Amino acid sequence: MIENKIVCSDNIEYLKTLESEYIDMFLCSPPYDNLRDYNGYTLDLHGLGVEMFRTLKTGGVVVWVVQDACVKGTRTGSSFRTALDFMDIGFGLWETLIYQRRGVWNHKTRFRMDHEYIFVFSKGNKLTYFDKEHMKVPCKHPLKEYHGTTNMGKDGKRVKAGVIKSGENKCNGTIFNYNFGGDGSKLKSKHPAVFPNLLALDFIECFCPKDGLVCDPYSGSGTTAVAAKSSDRKYIGIDINQEYVDIAKQRLEEEFIRRPQNRKVPNTPNGKTMDDFYVEES
Ligand SMILES: C[S@@+](CC[C@H](N)C(=O)[O-])C[C@H]1O[C@@H](n2cnc3c(N)ncnc32)[C@H](O)[C@@H]1O
User: Fold this and answer.
1) Domains in the chain and their CATH numbers?
2) Which one has a higher pLDDT value, 277 or 91?
């Protein structure tokens, strides 16, 4: 059986051994513009896109977490080039999300980097699975009515939209806020470029059906695999570096990711919560 494995391999070579339409969801973060040296890998994002497209089930998604390096004063733009290339391969760009995080370096000549991109690429016109219930938190002002709201009409004039009622729960929009770091795991912190446990758990539960198969072709410390296992999904993790493969295997034996209690949707920059603007969808 291929599922529930962490394999040490080049991701393209390994995916080539799988049959088409095999995987429910990919979740990964590629090395950012060769920012780190991972034992002499070759970064063939186009080749990987082709293999991901072939092996992904129709209705599945690739969740691609990425940021661009800054080289000689300019962002490389590689993440956008890759997004367009993946669309040429056949993927739809289902959504571009912002992963908001706390930047650490305070550059004198640049803004501090507080975000990454999460591109969600889809195969086919309709997703097989989408569930965001677990991302919802209680509204601060549940079931409150807001009067006198207006919309901009096509002619540019304001039209009264009537009464808007907030729901009991609210969910993120397209900005996702996660603390980043080792998640308190000594094993995980041995890898230099991990993503948050909760990010992996959220997106797996959002896009992969129960018992479905999640693949991370840049598995690193195995965050995706641990999140998949913790949420009753199957996993395949692929990493070219044996040291990281060993860390991932050990994490799978020792760790379980739990959903935090009392989760909050992040505040807006002006300090107000977005509560008042969330309306429960029907
Ligand atoms: C940004 S890290 C991913 C970290 C992971 N998201 C986590 O939370 O631990 C990228 C990983 O891709 C691996 N890698 C780079 N090129 C690869 C390739 N061609 N095939 C498989 N893995 C590769 C590196 O060894 C590294 O561990």
Assistant:
1) 5-136+172-273 (3.40.50.150), 138-170 (no CATH)
2) 91
